[in-house]
Specification:
Blueprint lengths: L4 E16 L5 E17 L3 E5 L6 H8 L7 E6 L2 E2 L5 H10 E4 L13 H6 L1 H4 L9 H11 L16 H13 L5 E5 L7 H18 L2 E6 L2 H5 L4 E6 L2 E7 H6 L4 H8 L6 H6 L30 H5 L35
Parallel strand pairs: 3-8, 3-9, 6-7, 7-8
Antiparallel strand pairs: 1-2, 1-4, 4-5, 9-10
Helix pairs in contact: 5-6, 6-7
Bound molecules: adenosine-5'-triphosphate and magnesium ion.
Length: 342
């Protein structure tokens, strides 16, 4: 049974104007940071979003939590388009969709105590916690994320990176949201602490019945936490599917290239894996290639790729074929096994 979609993102677009001149600021173009992204987030699931630096992951995250207004498109939370809400209605929705940031060193105010940082959301939503109850709640949150409740009066610099990210997570939980958008929550941490923070997020998901959008640039980080994965390239989703579909049956050349770069711990498997090296750099999102945006780096590109934008759809040959069918935005989508099975 498929759970209901609590968040439906449809044709989301975010363009940043490119201006020239200091006084008049004439618009000369636009950075197409996000350019037509659609996905669902279902109750209780984790959707992983992956892609190289600059492909628009953080921009998607910021629009989902209302930090940024979309240029176009819809973000429906339980059927209501939050992109169109304002004032009190927007505030009520935002309470339910919280963000955990990438860098626990810069995202926590160094002059505030941990108690004030975690309790700050209550200043904006005093209806959630009466003043006299806040300290107790904050201490409970510290305990929930595995930190000593006695630390409530300490400052961020007295904590390690992993502990700071726990503080950021506690703050994200303060309003008891339904959805947490975690934007590269472990990328700034040592590899040895990354797993601990991912495990914490998994435990909290069960405990608080949370749905996650989990962003990372590395496919290996999202593999175990994600139920479904969306792969982004230059402002668009190029392939999406379940963990097994993306890792076991990738059909988009970009996904295959990303997967071929994932570190493989087993030396035997490492010898048998296939390496795909991508030519060139990611083009500028201010001037993306026509047709398929990946074509300038793709070894399969044909003239049609420059002319026709490949839709994100289940490839025709999948119909009736064995194996899982999932959407891939490539004219020449085909399975290629690049990672040794686990
Ligand atoms: N406020 C802004 N004004 C102009 N351009 C922006 C703004 N924010 C982001 N961009 C541009 O939009 C594109 C997407 O940026 P975004 O931060 O969403 O990418 P990302 O996938 O999160 O990258 P990273 O992995 O480095 O975090 C980039 O080209 C970036 O330079
Ligand atoms: Mg980012």
């Amino acid at each position: 049974m498929t759970a209901e979609a609590i968040l439906e993102v449809r044709d989301l677009v975010k363009h940043y104007p490119l201006t020239q001149g200091i006084v008049l600021k004439k618009q000369v173009g636009a950075v197409k940071a996000v350019d037509g992204v659609s996905f669902d987030l279902r109750k209780g699931e984790t959707l992983g979003i992956v892609g190289e630096s600059g492909c628009g992951k953080s921009t998607v995250a910021r629009t989902l939590v209302g930090l940024e207004r979309p240029t176009a498109g819809a973000i429906r939370y339980h059927g209501e388009d939050i992109a169109r809400l304002s004032g009190r209605a927007l505030k009520a929705v935002r309470r339910n969709i919280q963000m955990v940031f990438q860098d626990p060193y810069t995202s926590l105010n160094p002059r505030m105590t941990v108690g004030d940082i975690i309790g700050e959301p209550y200043d904006i939503h005093p209806e959630v916690a009466p003043k006299g109850d806040r300290r107790r709640r904050v201490q409970e949150l510290l305990d929930v994320v595995g930190l000593n409740p006695e630390y409530v009066n300490r400052y961020p610099h007295q904590f390690s990176g992993g502990q700071r990210q726990r503080i950021g997570i506690a703050r994200g939980l303060a309003l008891r949201p339904e959805i947490i958008v975690a934007d590269e929550p472990v990328s700034a941490l040592d590899v040895s602490v990354q797993a601990q923070v991912v495990n914490l997020l998994e435990r909290l998901q069960d405990e608080f019945d949370l749905s996650y959008v989990f962003i990372a640039h590395d496919l290996s980080v999202v593999r175990h936490i994600s139920d479904r994965v969306a792969v982004m390239y230059l402002g668009r989703i190029v392939e999406t599917g379940t963990e097994d579909e993306i890792y076991g049956h990738p059909t988009h050349p970009y996904t295959q290239a990303l997967l071929s770069a994932v570190p493989v711990p087993d030396p035997d498997a490492r010898e048998h894996r296939e390496r795909i090296l991508l030519a060139g750099d990611v083009p500028s999102p201010a001037d993306p290639p026509s047709g398929c945006r990946f074509r300038t780096r793709c070894w399969k590109a044909q003239p049609v790729c420059a002319e026709v934008v490949p839709p994100l759809a289940v490839p025709e040959w999948f119909a009736g074929a064995a194996g899982p069918a999932h959407p891939s935005a490539c004219h020449f989508a085909e399975e290629r096994h690049v990672v040794p099975s686990e």
